[in-house]
């Protein structure tokens, strides 16, 4: 008697007979309780997801608080337009998902399947744009956890060796320091840079004329930045004292000036040339249009990110490579490491969400969901909305640094 | 039997089958009206545009408040997140405890970040400054 009273079975319905929904599991009294429990469990899981991303947001916050200039500099490499488009794509897919839950509740199966398919396509669109962004960065050597430069030594058949320094800077400028004179490879190397380096000596001849044609441009900058070049050469030799990143100490390095031009030309120079470094990120950004097409264009990375509208306002002082301190320059890779970790984990969640949506859509095709039972649609929807929520914070924090 | 303790005899809508409205969608699931879903979407897209537009203006300089741009950007993001959570994620009509879980997890994230930042600021005082001093001495 006592056991019976402490666990009173629903009157006459301790089996699956009566008016109970066939979806009601044994261990629940009512569908309300079952659905409520499922949602509670999902929210508890979402809380752990938020805490996991919280760790990455924490890393972001700490590094940005310590080195705000590094983040300001790094964000020029991200395309605000693509980020904004991706935000809109995720918001739209969140909307179709919420609409899908509504359709499931109202038993509109055809509409539900259509909306789930649209939501899935939203995920495809998001990952597609992310792919464009990632490959464009990889092509420019902006990989995760990459040092600010690394050295590549190439040996030629005539016994010469070329020391190549690859910099994590706008234009992917690289410098070739061989025997005798020093060649500055500047501008847009193709994705397979090492092949180019093998042909470095041919470049030297091929682009010699072109570099002279650009000389006028350089002189303008030389006037504006007179004296800057010498300073910079000194700064650079200081940086060799701090072995904070990859790269062997090379006897030539202290002679190597860091020179960037916004053109794609290869120029040659003697050691004594103290041509001032170009502020290539901004030089490109001020006159560069930006948008989707630029990103497809291989050379677009530096042109795509800086809002030209911001520059026209006038009091917007852009952060350039040369305005960073030595230490900040050595830490510039941190931005990209954090960028890849955060967007990578988020992208993984998008992929998982797409898988879940596909699964729910297949079940919906079989007519599994209706007004009585639609918990899977609901919970997958919650997951998808969380992915959207996280991107809502990632977008301003990574793409819209001011 | 006259004084049956019956712990669940009090009307509990979760466990009492007589209160279960299986066929009443209003109760188990709140069906969000279409105009509300569309309205929230339009609002979210507008807020996205605002977040982008805010970066065209240097609010820090304009109002002489440090980090105002970041604060505004995060504020807009929070508003967007609230709309997604309330309407797309049904928290507006859900059991309040689910909302509590969300708020609690966010609170712990904020706690973790702020404590770590406070600690991170100390690296200048405890590590960087002494290191700089040592290198000056060495030279």
Which descriptors apply to this entry?
heterodimer; A: 402 residues; alpha+beta; 7% strand; elongated; B: 139 residues; mainly alpha; 5 helices; 68% helix
What does this structure look like?
The complex is a heterodimer of chains A (402) and B (139). Chain A has 402 residues and is α+β, with helices and mostly antiparallel strands. Chain A has helices at 2-6, 31-66, 68-74, 80-105, 109-139, 193-198, 200-206, 208-213, 215-224, 228-239, 280-287, 292-296, 308-313, 326-330, 332-365, 375-399; strands at 149-155, 161-167, 174-178, 182-185, 266-269. Chain A has a five-stranded antiparallel β-sheet with strand order 1-2-3-4-5. The longest helix of chain A has 36 residues, at 31-66. The model of chain A is unreliable at 1-18, 146-151 and 165-317 (pLDDT under 50). Chain B has five helices and no strands. Helix content of chain B is 68%, strand content 0%. Chain B has helices at 25-28, 34-54, 59-63, 68-88, 96-138. In chain B, helix 2 (34-54) packs antiparallel against helix 4 (68-88). By secondary structure, chain B is mainly α. Chains A and B meet through helix 2, helix 4, helix 13 and helix 16 of A and helix 1, helix 2, helix 3, helix 4 and helix 5 of B.
């Amino acid at each position: 008697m006592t056991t019976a009273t402490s666990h009173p079975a629903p009157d006459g319905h301790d089996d699956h007979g009566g008016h109970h929904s066939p979806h009601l599991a044994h261990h629940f009294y009512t569908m309300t309780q079952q659905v409520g429990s499922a949602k509670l469990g999902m929210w508890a899981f979402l809380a752990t997801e938020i805490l996991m991303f919280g760790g990455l947001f924490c890393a972001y916050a700490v590094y940005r608080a310590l080195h705000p200039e590094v983040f300001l500099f790094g964000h020029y490499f991200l395309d605000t337009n693509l980020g904004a488009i991706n935000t809109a794509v995720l918001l739209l897919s969140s909307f179709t998902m919420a609409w899908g839950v509504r359709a499931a509740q109202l038993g509109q199966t055809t509409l539900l399947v259509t909306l789930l398919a649209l939501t899935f396509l939203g995920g495809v669109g998001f990952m597609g744009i992310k792919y464009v962004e990632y490959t464009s960065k990889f092509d420019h050597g902006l990989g995760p956890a990459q040092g600010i430069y690394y050295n590549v030594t190439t040996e030629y058949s005539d016994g010469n060796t070329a020391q190549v320094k690859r910099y994590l800077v706008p234009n992917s400028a690289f410098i070739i320091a061989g025997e005798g004179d020093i060649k500055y490879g500047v501008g847009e190397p193709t994705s397979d840079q090492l092949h180019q380096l093998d042909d470095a000596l041919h470049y030297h001849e091929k682009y010699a004329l072109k570099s002279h044609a650009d000389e006028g441009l350089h002189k303008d900058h030389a006037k504006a930045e007179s004296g800057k070049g010498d300073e910079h050469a000194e700064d650079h030799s200081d940086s060799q004292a701090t072995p904070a990143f990859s790269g062997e100490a090379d006897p030539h390095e202290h002679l190597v000036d860091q020179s960037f031009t916004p053109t794609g030309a290869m120029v040659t120079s003697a050691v004594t040339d103290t041509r001032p470094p170009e502020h290539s990120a901004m030089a490109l950004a001020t006159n560069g249009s930006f948008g989707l097409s630029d990103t497809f264009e291989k050379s677009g990375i530096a042109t795509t990110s800086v809002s030209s509208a911001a520059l026209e306002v006038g009091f917007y002082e852009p952060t350039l490579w040369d305005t960073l301190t030595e230490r900040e320059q050595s830490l510039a890779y941190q931005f990209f490491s954090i960028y890849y970790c955060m967007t990578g984990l988020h992208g993984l969640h998008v992929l998982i969400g797409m898988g879940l949506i596909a699964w729910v859509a297949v079940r919906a095709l079989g007519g599994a969901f209706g007004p009585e039972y639609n918990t899977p649609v609901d919970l997958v929807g919650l997951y998808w909305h969380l992915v959207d929520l996280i991107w809502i914070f990632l977008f301003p924090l990574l793409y819209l640094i001011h | 039997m006259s004084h049956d303790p019956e712990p669940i005899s009090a009307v509990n809508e979760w466990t009492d089958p007589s209160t279960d409205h299986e066929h009443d969608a209003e109760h188990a699931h709140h069906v969000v009206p279409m105009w509300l879903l569309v309205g929230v979407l339009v609002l979210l897209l507008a807020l996205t545009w605002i977040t982008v537009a805010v970066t065209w203006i240097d609010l820090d300089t304009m109002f002489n408040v440090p980090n105002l741009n970041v604060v505004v950007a995060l504020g807009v993001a929070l508003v967007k997140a609230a709309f997604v959570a309330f309407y797309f994620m049904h928290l507006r009509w859900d059991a309040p405890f689910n909302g509590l879980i969300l708020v609690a997890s966010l609170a712990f994230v904020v706690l973790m970040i702020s404590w770590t930042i406070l600690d991170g600021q100390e690296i200048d005082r405890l590590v960087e400054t002494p290191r700089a001093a040592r290198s000056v001495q060495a030279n």
